[in-house]
Design a protein that fits this description.
Length: 120
């Protein structure tokens, strides 16, 4: 398993970054990490490109709390990144080409809410 590194970030100085915790990744090919900005930082979210799953992790131990499938409705799209905003998780799915990308919205419980094109 690959290791995930959590960094303590200081906006005023790049030299102030330090590793505060490491643990095994929940799956191979982690394509994105996210934290609920309104939360207390106890939960970390990760998305696996190869497993096509979103994992909710305990940020201190790395233990998997829950997971759900984020497989796209087409075989060509794979998770490329992850974000948490406004109480929803956003999984960007991309086929590796120039024109095909979608943002899939999920609740933290894994309920699919919809998608939007992320073609720019």
């Amino acid at each position: 398993m690959k290791k995930l590194f959590l960094l303590f970030l200081c906006a005023y100085s790049v030299s102030a970054f330090q590793v505060v915790q490491t643990f095994d990744a929940p799956a191979d090919n982690i394509a994105g990490l996210a934290v609920d900005p309104a939360g207390n930082g106890s939960e970390l979210w990760a998305v696996s490109r190869s497993e096509e799953k979103v994992y909710k992790l305990d940020a201190t131990s790395g233990q998997i709390i829950s997971s759900f499938s984020c497989a796209a409705d087409t075989q060509n799209l794979k998770p490329a990144s992850l974000a948490y905003a406004g109480g929803l998780l956003y999984v960007a799915q991309w086929d590796g080409g120039i024109n095909n990308g979608w943002g899939y919205e999920y609740t933290p419980a894994g309920e699919y809410k919809g998608r939007t094109s992320i073609f720019c």
